[in-house]
């Protein structure tokens, strides 16, 4: 199965993802964040080599990403079954029901923002390129970043920036945004944020608008709510020996992944001192990667966007 031309988004920690999912039990693999299908294609090729066939259910909320993925997977041979679905990944339950799928051999979620979003100014994700304040992964969704920037009051903006951006200058930035309204472009917002932050803080820690743009993107796309919803379901749907792999890129995501995996790996929760377990709880999974793994120096040198990546993985315990 020959590879197509390189996609605009370089898959992060590709060899490790393929290692973890390629040898998972026979059965369908779900990619919750299909993107340009870089991870998915490599995993499919490995699974064909291991099992003689492979099945992918690829989910993405961005129709442009699905179109690109379709092109990149179109030349796979008849041993590969591919089903691409336009949906948010927290709609996994409905997607599986529509396809008649009960158990999954593996689940992948790469939560990083794609190059196809950042590098296209008209999508409004980048503070470096002038574009509309959009930031919607799915252009069909009703709420844009401009709506939040121009409609929320100062207190609401402050809470948003603190919660989703962990921005310590949230109140100063919110005050400046309100004073500068209306704002319509990414570069306008970036300039407002830059001048709202104390001069000493602007000289360290990267671009001063990074956390503000992160917070708005997360809020526009309800990213944390969707992640918190889908993780327990993905784990529950794993077949015996099935593997779930998640790549996160900031502490807010990683905390949710860590918590969901730890909860699924926890056994008895009875109070200490009981002579026998009364709760009957048994672990659903075992950790394959308990402490998050990071890309090596070679990868971060060639793909700087991989620098923040954190990989965690669990495997469904076999019953009996």
Can you give a write-up of this model?
There is one protein chain. The chain is of the alpha/beta class. It folds into two domains: 14-110 and 223-316, Rossmann fold; 122-221, Putative methyltransferase TM0872, insert domain (DNA polymerase, domain 1). Helices cover 43% and strands 16% of the residues. The protein has a seven-stranded mixed sheet with strand order 3-2-1-4-5-7-6, with helices on both faces. The longest helix has 15 residues, at 251-265. It is globular.
Helical percentage? 40-55%
Which structural class best describes the helix and strand composition? alpha/beta
| Number of E strands | 7
Radius of gyration: 21 Å
Query: Domains counted in the coordinates: how many?
Result: 2
Order of strands side by side in the largest beta sheet? 3-2-1-4-5-7-6
Return the CATH architecture of the largest domain. Answer: 3-Layer(aba) Sandwich
End-to-end Cα distance:
38 Å
Helical run tally: 14
Output the CATH class name of the largest domain.
Answer: Alpha Beta
| Strand residue content | 15-25%
Shape: globular
Largest sheet: 7 strands, mixed
User: Order of SSEs, N→C?
Assistant: HEHEHEHEHHHHHHHHEHEHE
The CATH homologous superfamily of the largest domain corresponds to: Vaccinia Virus protein VP39
């Amino acid at each position: 199965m020959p590879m197509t031309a390189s996609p605009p988004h370089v898959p992060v920690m590709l060899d490790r993802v393929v290692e973890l999912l390629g040898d998972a039990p026979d059965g369908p693999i779900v990619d919750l964040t299909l993107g340009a299908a870089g991870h998915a294609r490599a995993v499919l090729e490995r699974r064909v080599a291991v099992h003689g066939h492979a099945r992918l259910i690829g989910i993405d909320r961005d129709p442009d990403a699905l179109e690109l993925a379709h092109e990149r997977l179109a030349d796979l041979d008849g041993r590969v079954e591919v089903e691409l679905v336009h949906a948010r990944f927290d709609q996994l339950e409905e997607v599986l029901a529509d396809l008649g799928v009960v158990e999954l051999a593996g689940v992948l979620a790469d939560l990083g923002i794609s190059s196809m979003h950042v590098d296209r100014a008209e999508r409004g994700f980048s503070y470096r390129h002038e574009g509309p304040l959009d930031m919607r992964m799915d252009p069909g969704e009703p709420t844009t970043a401009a709506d939040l920037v121009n409609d929320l009051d100062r207190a609401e903006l402050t809470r948003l920036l603190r919660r989703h951006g962990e921005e310590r200058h949230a109140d100063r930035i919110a005050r400046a945004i309100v004073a500068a309204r209306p704002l319509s472009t990414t570069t306008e917002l970036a300039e407002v944020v830059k001048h709202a932050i104390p001069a000493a803080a602007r000289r360290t820690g990267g671009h001063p608008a990074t956390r503000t743009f992160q917070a708005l993107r997360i809020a526009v796309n309800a990213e944390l709510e969707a992640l918190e919803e889908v993780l327990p379901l993905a784990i529950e749907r794993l077949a015996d020996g099935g593997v779930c792999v998640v790549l996160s890129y900031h502490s807010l995501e990683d905390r949710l992944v860590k918590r969901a995996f730890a909860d699924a790996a926890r056994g008895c929760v009875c109070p200490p001192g009981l002579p026998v377990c009364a709760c009957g709880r048994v672990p659903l999974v075992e950790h394959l990667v308990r402490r998050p793994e990071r890309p090596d120096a070679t990868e971060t040198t060639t793909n700087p966007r991989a620098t923040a990546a954190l990989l965690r993985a669990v495997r469904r315990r076999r019953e009996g």
